[in-house]
Design brief:
It comes from Oceanisphaera sediminis. Keywords: Membrane, Transmembrane, Transmembrane helix. This is DUF2956 domain-containing protein. 75% of the residues lie in helices and 0% in strands. The protein has a domain of 73 residues. The protein is built from three helices and no strands.
Amino acid sequence: MAYSKNRKTAPSPQTQEEAERIARATQRPGQTKEQTRLITQGIQKGIEEYKKQHKARARAADKARKQQLRQQESHDHDDTIEQEPVPASPVSAWLPWLLLALSWAGFALYWWRQQPS
């Protein structure tokens, strides 16, 4: 079954009831049933058009929100890639070991001086 935008669907029962209620509330004295029926149909069409526009706006907003989330995730992923650690230079690789050895040598010297002869 092919989808057609021109496909006419019957308004929902809630829409029909709402349109009839509004048409009766605005009914003028001496207005015929035919006139009231035409007004009701016009109100139904207006409600249906409003619903279509509302759905279209909701779809567009959802699409924009999803696109923004995708861009944010992409941006976060790019930031993560850019922040990868840079390999240490050869000098900074041996510096902690040198400091450790010097501190142990200092502790040993201090302990040796504290020993009674």
